[in-house]
Amino acid sequence: MKHKIAFIDMDGTLYQTENDIIQESTLAAIDQLRQAGYKIVAATGRPLNQMKLIMDRVEFDYYVLINGGYILDRDLNEINAFPIVQRTVNDLVQLAKDNEYGLMFHFGDATYIYNDFYPMYYFSKYANVLDSLFYDPTHSFHKRHRVFNAVILTKDPAGLDAFMEAHPNLRSDLINIKTEGIAYDIFNSATDKAEGIQAVLDYEGLDWEDAIAFGDSTNDTQMLEKAGIGVAMGSATDYVKSFADIETTDVYHDGIYNAVKQILAQEAGE
Fold it and tell me: Is pTM beyond 0.85 here?
């Protein structure tokens, strides 16, 4: 079957987060997909303002951002959005204050630190996104703007576990990134990359069988499972790999290129 659209995770899949590298082989693979008629879509936990270093090197047709919460076309026009309800955002602010958690909010095109500035600063430095980061000591930006995602940083997640039980409209994903403490993405329980991808597929008049998905983390499992071909990176856990159709090498060893070579060769032979 000839597929038509590729959804690509960023950190640990397309992008070497800690050293700001996109392999030349990855760029070549994306060019090969384009030449074969594929649409190329970023499917990431990052907000738009933290995509600059990647967008300088890769052109995308669509952006599924903030784990499916914020979806844009190539011209950065909004296709769909799934913000966290205001009352729940207020509760997150209070949770972080009461427990001295590091707290950061993604607002679609802006990111603000609220609590524990330096732990969140170092977290963001590792991810090469300091130039897109702001600090709000007043804890008020969320009162005027839509929140799509929170990042919580803590050394003791017990309080967060209790909070999540009391807020079934939310879910948390462990962030696989080197930092002091434990970091979690917090977002709507019904929102994930697969929901954002569905918005793009509907917009293009395509279905999941037309799609290839590349990922390495737990927030990629649904898109890996639903896509016509799900590709797990070599660095993925066995759990994540169980949702994929094929496994490739990791982001340091031509992972996307090797998978694309295999897929295009298979399609050419059909």
Answer: yes
